[in-house]
Amino acid sequence: MKKSLLSLAFVAVFGFNATASTPIDGEKKEIKVSESTVTWKGYKVTGAHNGSINLKSGHLEMNGKKLTGGEFVVDMTSITVTDLEAGQGKEKLEGHLQSADFFGVESNPTSKLVFTTVKAMNDNSYTVTGDLTIKGITKPVTLVVSMFENKATATVKVDRTKYDIKYGSGSFFDNLGDKAIYDDFDLVVDLAL
């Protein structure tokens, strides 16, 4: 269950829902963190877990109506599990996800995504490459961001083992059976500007 939660946490990190007026060239649009959401989904052999994580700060960089960059900081201490009820393992799983087995939030309270390249696919969609930092380890990720009027949406699949999160990974441990947790998790972020 704990292993599934970790996978779920990463599922939801980077999808967007941005509300913005027409920006000025080179404008930085600050994120309204209280109105934005980050959700995650992690997978295990016997199912999946999902939850949310709070954004701490962030912005999108625009040139006219075109996305040109962005940066987001996530408060890892806020990881919650939303598919379990209190008393049904919710608190245990949240504690395990915050532990050194997973995100080690005591020494790594935030994670960060910084866009490094943004390439237009068409009028509404962009292929974005960015540097994702989790547990102090930075690795490149690629995601597709789609923008329609006042919205931006994106998801990213993250291989947790690249960030030294190996707990329950069949890639590193044998004979896990139905206790195995898959390496990839999904993140989806909805951003309000």
TrEMBL record:
Xref: PANTHER family = PROTEIN YCEI (PTHR34406)
Per the record's keyword annotation, is Signal included, yes or no? yes
Would you tell me the protein name for this molecule?
YceI-like domain-containing protein
* Pfam families reported for this sequence: YceI
- All residue ranges annotated as the Lipid/polyisoprenoid-binding YceI-like domain in the record: 28-192
Q: Does the entry feature the keyword Isomerase, yes or no?
A: no
Q: Which UniProt keywords apply?
A: Signal
InterPro entries, per this entry? Lipid/polyisoprenoid-bd_YceI, TTHA0802/YceI-like_sf
- Signal peptide interval: 1-20
Which SUPFAM superfamilies is this protein grouped with? YceI-like
Q: The organism sits in which domain of life?
A: Bacteria
